[in-house]
# Entry
Amino acid sequence: MQIGLIGCGNMARALARGWRRAVLCSDPLAGRAQALAAEVGGEALPDNAEVARRADLVILAHKPAQLHEVASEVAPHARAVASILAVTPLASLREAYAGKPVYRFMPSLPVEVRQGALVQAADRAGTEDAIPVGGRPADRDLDRAVHDLFAELGTLVVLDDSLLDVAMGLMSCGPAYVALVAEAQVDAGVRRGIPAAQGAPLVVQTLVGTAELIRRRENDMISVRREVTSPGGLTARGLDALERAGLRSAFSDALDAVLDGST
# Structure
């Protein structure tokens, strides 16, 4: 499947690096498209319409406000369209690309290393095994091929389209939150004498290893936390300090800020 990227920003570059295949791409900044094509292979094209003519699947990675402007160039030529645009529901995509198979995904930056969290939109709530269909009479082979293409990049979950922006607040914004948590832990170690150069690998490996352990425990976070936490012990004291500092409410407030700011 020949992939065409409309827009070559951070997330588009992460997708291209994760797919490890030649792509067609365009961007208002021609140098950015040329740099991406040179890095992953493929070709930077002069305009969006040419990308649509030559690609089997067009990935919309431009600014959401440009939906109709870009569609006027792409829709007449596109075979199928997949969007990673925030706050742009399936209904809006199908209106802009009438009669074309349309898919909506929300990826996170670790797709670059094939460890991303990704969400695919469905018209109705479905199971994780469901494969949503595109915007015209179902072509199950195409639906499967597009689904599997994104599934290459990490863990792909199917959610009702109405929940994709909530998911964005959890996983698309999440890498920045995790990086901030890691930075804060390293800084805490520096305050008590551990140089950042030695503290950073300890903190990062703790995050990586704990994530894998939770995954293997089928996402049972409570059991992992309890195994580390002895009654009245050091970890219990640390957790109490984090709770008193408002850790849970801080993440809840962050999600509200993302969603309230996107409407």
In short: The chain has twelve helices and eight strands. The radius of gyration is 21 Å. Residues 90 and 106 are 12 Å apart (CA to CA).
